[in-house]
Each structure stands twice: as C-alpha cells, then as structure tokens.
Amino acid sequence: MAWLLLGCIHRYSGNQGIKMKCTQLDSLEHLLRKCRLNSLFATGKLFFLIMKQDSRLRTLILSTLLLFSVPLLTFAQIDPMQRNLLELGYDQPLVGQGPQAVYAYYYYNNPEFIRTNMALRLALASAYLYGELGFKQLLSPYTDVGIGLYGGAFGDNFYEIRQGHYYKSESFDGNGGGTALSLYHLLNPGMRIPLNFVARAGLIYSVYDDTRHTSPDFSVPDNRVTGFVRTGLRFAGKEPVLYPDLGLEVSVWFERQWRTGLDPYGFNGDREVSAASSLYWVYAGLNYAWTNVGSKISFAVTAGGSSSADRFSAWRLGGVLPLVSEFPLVMPGYYYEELSAEEFLHLYFRYSVPLDRQHRFELMFEAASARLNYLPGFEQPGNWQTGAGVGLGYTPKSQICRIILRYGYGFNAIRGAEEGAQSIGLLVQLDFEAWKKRKRSRSDQ
Fold first, then answer.
1. Among 35, 58, 227, 244, which lies 20 to 30 A Cα-Cα from 366?
2. pLDDT band at 445, cuts 50/70/90?
3. Domains of the chain: residue spans and CATH
C-alpha cells in the first residue's frame, strides 16, 4: 500500500497541481479519478453559456473575465489538468441562528491557455471571481510564476460571534478585490514525493458597509488596503475536492499582514485594528481509499498561532464546509466561523463504508476536536471544543457527481444557557470533464 500511495502522489500531488509528466504511472490513473482545485463560490448562468460554446469562444469568455477579476483564495501550484467542476455546499443550524454558510462556484482550469507554457484557472461566482494566469518554467525549469486577480462583493464579510451568539447588529459586509504574485519552486526534482517552496505577495482593498441588521450606533471599519506576504514548504499534497480518495500532505506556513485604515470602530470606537499581524501554522493530512472494499479514511492535524491578532486576522473555526478554504477548520454542529482563537490545535477524522457492492452509496462518520487559546473577548468555559457527525453519500460509477447529506452535533457549542448544537447540510460536486468523457465513450461504442 505504501508504494502505491507514493506512486500516486508522484503522479499528482493534490491541489498543488505539481507539474509532472502525464505519461508517468498511467496505470494508477483510475485511483486518482478526477482532480479538482480549491475555490469558492460560482455562477450558474455563466457555466451554461461556456459549456454551450466551442473551445475558442470558451477561452475568449474566460480570458475576458480574468481581466476584471482577482485571490483571497489561495491557489497552489500551477495545475496541469483540464478541469470543469461545479461545487455546492450548504450548512443549516437546527439550534440557534448563525451566519449564512453556503458556497456555490464553478471552477475552470486550462493548462495550455494560448500557449503550452501558460495556464489559466478561474473560480466563478455570481458576485465574485478568482483567477490566476500561470507561466510554467518561467524562471527556471523547476520554477513557475502565477499572477492572480480577484474581486467582487461579500468576499470580506465579517460575522461577530461570541459565546455561541451571532450578533447581527455588530456584523457587516465587506467588498473589494486585489492582486497577488506567486512563485512555485520544486526543491527536489526527480524525487518520488515532491517538496515545493511557495511564496506569495499581494494587496487587498476592502470596502466595508452596514447590513440591514447592523446597529445604527455601530461604526463599521474604515476602508483599507491590506498587504500580505506568505511563504511555505509543502511536502506532497492533497486534493481539495469533496472528501478525496487519495492524498498526503505535510506543510508549514508563515504569513505577515499589514493594514491601513487603523481608526477604531464599533460602539464608540471600542474595537481596534492591528497595523500588522503574523500567522503561522503546520498541517499534516492523509486520505486513503481501499478500492477493493470501498472503505475510506481521512485524518488531519492542523496547529497554528498568531501575533498581534485582531478580529480580522484571528483563526476562525466552525462549520463543515470542506471547500471553503485551503485549510478548512471544520467543527460539525457549530456555526460557520463560530470560534475565534489566537492559537489552536485542530484534529479531524473521517471514515466511510460502502452500502452496496458497486460502492455507489456510502455511510460516513466524522469527528473533529480543537484546543483553543481564544482571542480576548471571545473566551468560552473550556479550551476544548468537539463535534461529530454522520453522512449519507452517493457517487455513480462514472464519477460525474457526488452528493452527500450530512448531520452534525457540536458537543460544546453554547446555545443559550446550555451546551449542544445540531446542524444539517448538503454537499454536491459535479465533474463535467467526467461527463464529457462518458459522452465520448458512448459515442465510440
């Protein structure tokens, strides 16, 4: 099993899209199935328009959109695979009322955009767009460069949640966009498991505004520019798809942020904005599927800290949307981003078993637990928070779609004077490359 896993990692190193020769290890391709990329949100109408047109018009439409776009989303290495994906996720609390927890996005990746050494990837939503134009081997045979653009509405929304209560009167909308320059360098060419150095620098401009629930006595923060620099080492990689079958990653990261617009905000200026903050974290995760019996296992450990953190840079944990960020800190049963911490240790485990011989239906069990050093003002009675959940999934043999209905329970989530919260959710993934492949295979018969 070990050599098989290492070989698959060499063939495709998760969401990083490590640039490998596609002719290698073709016999293992059935284990990889369809590779997908982490993103957020999407647009339905644009997708149908793109899918109806020929390839030249599709490229023209997407390249035009890139000109008006730009990453709050963190892209990883340039992706060498052609992709057309639609991702939907929704999480609804059954106890209490939390912020809206939903994503719907269309992801497009073209590894040979205009020229063979250029790549274009986009994540499209009804109100937001993320994109990156990549240049392969630009600085050296093992160094790629990416130029990212992103922008739109509601990407910087802030939700105030303290001790299990969602304060709509102290929450506000955030709109804006930015740009980033990324460098991806392979440190160990020729090795079976890739080790990559990632560096990214960028600017984000944010405009804040009241919602219809924001208190008239509450002053939203000043509009601001945020600059950031992120560096990291990523060993192997994971697929940021809906519960991937296979993946391994160990990575370490550091990010420094600088902000303008530092005037106090809130009720009579009772909240401050840090001029500079630092974030650092390590991640280790494993996903593996026993294809002969259909069982799957996933385990991840994430630990992070910060310095001079404020509400905008603190670590936020909660909810179960697996594709909402590159390193999702899920907590079944909790509100989306319910917990705010300066430091944390997060543990996650998932196990699924098939319910039929074709492995189309599966029963999933998951659990997450975190030890937190809370952001001042967001303390809770205990430092440990734990949640667990179950899910029922369906994946056809063609891998065209994956649908999961799930339930979660947060054991330590505060709701009123008691602990305990519940949530239900729906996760959907559609792979249109698989759909086209199936259509071609039928026409060849």
1. 35
2. low
3. 2-444 (2.40.160.50)
